[in-house]
User: Fold this.
Amino acid sequence: MRIGCRTLACLLIQVDERILSVLSICAADEHAFADQEYKLFEELVKDLAFGLVTLKAQVIKKELEKTFLLHNHAIEAVRNGITITDARQPGNPMVYANPAFKRITGYDSAEVVGRSLSFLNGEDHDQPGLDTIRSAIRRQKTGHAVIRNYRKDGSLFWNEIAIAPVKNSTGEVTHFVGIIDDITDFKTYQEQLEYQPTYDELTGLINRNLLNDRFDQAISYAQHNQNEVCIFVLDLDNFKVINDAMGHSAGDELLTIIAKRLLNCARAGDTVTRYDGDEFVLIFPQMAKIEDAVLIAERIIAEISQPLQIKGHKLQGTASIGISFYPHDGQDKETLLQHADIAMYHAKDRGRNTFCFYTEELNLRLMQRLTLEEDLRQGLKLEQFMVYYQPKLDLYSGKISGVEALLRWKHPEKGMIPPDQFIPLTEDTGLILPIGEWMMRTACLQAKVWQEAGLPPISMAVNVSPKQLHLSQFDKTIRKVLDYSGLDARYLDLELTEAAVMNEPEKMVVTLTRLKEIGVQISMDDFGTGYSSLSYLKRFSFDNLKIDKAFIKDIPIDKEDVTLVLTIIAMAHNFKLKVVAEGVETQVQMDFLKQKNCDGIQGYFFSVPLPGREVEKLLRKINGKISVPDSGLSSRIHPSSHLSKQPVYRHAKNTRIASLKTMLAKYRCPI
Ligand code: C2E
Ligand code: CA
Ligand code: CA
Assistant:
């Protein structure tokens, strides 16, 4: 009205009853518009409405296009392969695959559209992951799996696939989106990880991953063969102190050295692992007996406690060891390790630097053994050892051809202990070396004393343990002993067992040749109990052969033994060996052997092992005229006090005998 407007027409611009806007047309006159003009306005409003709607739609479309492009770019740019499949078509064919799909699989989008994604499985259909995916599709749910797929070039890749259903506005699943990820590198890395940690980087030893395998193998082997498996848990006693005081690199160096030492103590087939920090686990898959475990444990403890040099400091490491046995102490590895661990803590409680069995009964045996070992060392110090001599009778001449020196231990409480009960221990502990040398010297001196006393010379047989025989200087020791005693080499007779010779036959040929050069005699002891190899008898050029008492016991009743003994005699004679039968206890046995041309006998029938003084009497009686009275030399050779009470000798040779006795007196116990 203010601007002079008298008529106003208001027209609604609407689409489907929805009002978009209002168009107002003004006129100066009253009732300015006629009906036709109104109709025109209505036409105009309709056009306007159409125009506005179209315009809006174009804007929306543009916006949609923008969003679509963004999404599309995103889909095309991601490193994951993305596929869209049509869920309504049979076989769920692909309708889209992004460029990453090509990068991963080698297949172009055009090559795969229309095909089912399962063609990537090749022939490899039997995979649990595929079942997961198939079931997800069936149930129209999301699914996730890792499957083996094959690239266009046939190479395998590990596909981590996730699928999700896509629904339309009515809620119907029309498509599936699949996201695939090539995790081949990760898988390879994982496999490497699984492989790598089987060895401990620091020490190069097997670590606990591989230990489990070895453990399983050892147990299943033992189950099959009914043998025992021995487990050591070894813990260093002072590792923390060294680590704290000298730093981790010193600790590392120590562990490396210890690892080497442990490996030195192990045989082929044993397992040595660094289990954790300074804890090691060792598996011995074929431990024959507890004594072997003791030996190895002692060796390890001795090895570890050898002084070592780290960063210019001289150190000594010690270890505590716990031992368990399969099947005795547990059926599975966890139990066996746990029990060995408990035993290891017992060893720590016992003052460290030692070992302990899990089973009390074994500990008891160990204690007995340790007591015996201690007694043995004491016995040597206190001169409780003595030598008895058992005569051998020559069946042709009826004279004593020689004696065998046999070790005796007179224990203050347990009385006379037979050698079978302590010789093995002396061999294990190495005490056999000083004892053996002492035996040798004593026996040679005794033989010389008898000769000097005017008795017809006889041979002196001394048993040689495998340990002695394998000493590189053994021949030198023999020369020294002979020099020392003044005994002619041909009167010394070394008794060796088959086992001692067979251990390293090549080396033994050399050793025995050296011994033969000295001029001593060599006898094969206990023949028949070991390998009884004829070829070796020849090769090693023995002088005498002693048939083991086991074969003499039942002759002439046991026909098999008779055949065996006769064969041995014939064969030995063939090789120019003299045959002595051991353990002859009866007249019948002796008569039989004599009739069958056996050269000599040794056994209770003729004489038990006797102290030297008794043998001397026997020698005088049987071997002929003697030129001196009882030399008074006791079987108990070493104690000087005893020797100082010798009778005064009237014979000219007395001076020589006296000087030999002084030597004997000076030569004390071996330790
Ligand atoms: P060996 O060398 O076979 O010694 C013979 C053993 O048979 C001796 O037992 C002896 O006492 C026993 N013996 C002798 N005659 C008879 C008999 O008629 N019947 C029976 N049943 N036995 C008889 P000993 O003295 O107990 O010695 C046992 C083993 O100990 C010896 O067997 C030998 O292997 C070892 N030994 C003894 N002394 C030494 C030694 O000084 N050094 C080494 N390395 N071993 C020794
Ligand atoms: Ca012997
Ligand atoms: Ca023997």
Notes: The longest strand covers residues 156-167. The chain has four domains: 7-74, 78-182, 192-358, 375-535+582-587+600-625+640-665.
